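Protein record
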Amino acid sequence: MKSNFSPAFYLGVDGGGTKCRARLRNEIGDILGEAESGPANIRLGLDLAWTNIMASIDKALAKAGLTRDIFPQTAVGLGLAGVVTPNDCTRTLEAAPKADFGALRAAADYHVACLGAFEGRDGGIQIAGTGSSSYAIIRGKGHPVGGWGFLLSETGSAAALGRDAVAAALKAHDGLAPASPLALALIAHFGHPAAIIDWSERARPSDYGALSPIVFDHARQRDGIAIGLIEQTAADIDTFIAHQIKLGAPRVCLVGGLGPHIRPWLSDATKAVLAEPATDILDGAILLARQPDDATIALREDA
C-alpha cells in the first residue's frame, strides 16, 4: 500500500476452485459485509476469476448498503488458488477490471491463509484437504513446500489416501496382499474391479478424496490395511510439519478437511507444535491489503 494512501475500507478475497468469498471491513475492523460467488482459481481463466471476484465484492457491498463508489477509498487483498509464481500475480493484477481501487494486491491462497493464521507473525500452515502443501512465513519470508499437483505430489492428503486405498484393494483382489473388509468394501463400492479402470480415467482428486471416509470407517473397525494407509498419511504430514519446524517456524496450523480426522494419528512431536489459527483466510487477505506495496510475497520462481 502506498504511504500516502489511508484506506477507509478493506476488502479481503478468498478465490478458490469452487467458490470465491469476499469480506468488507472498515478502518477500525468492523465487518460490514460478507458474500460469496463462483470459483476464482486463476487456472480456470482470469476472465472467469475476475467475474466472480467482482460478483462476491458487489454482494458484500450490497450487504453493507454501499456501492462501488467506495473503491477509491478501499484497499483490496486477493488470496487466489492457482497463483504459483510472481508472474501469476502480475498477470492477475493486469487483468483486473477498471474498478479504481485505492490499492490492490494479489498472492497465493496459502500465503494469505498463513498471514491470517498467525496474524502476520512467523508460523506455518499444513494444508491437509483434498490436496496437500506446506507454507511457512519465517522472518517475513515465505517458504512453499509441496503442492505440485495430484500426479506428482499431494502426499498427506485425502486424495492420496483414497488413491492408495483403491490401489491396495486391487492388490488384494489379485491375491498379492491379504484381503480385508476395506478391500472388499471398495470393490463393492465400484461394483466390479474392472469398473475402477473406467472410473480412474475420468476421476479427479476430489473423487479420490471422497473415498477417504471409507478408510477411516474401517480403521475404527481395526482393519489392518486401513490402519496402515492412515498411518502412512499421518507420517507424510509429520514429515511436512517437521520440515517447517526445521526451517524455523515456531508453530504450525493444520488446516483442511482431513485435519480433524488425521490429527489423532499424528506423532506426539507433531501434536506438540500444532496451533489453532488466530484468524481465517479472509482476514489474512485483509492483512495482505494492509501491507505496503513492497512487502515480500514468496512464491515459486518463474520458469
In short: The chain has two domains: 9-119+278-290, 122-277.
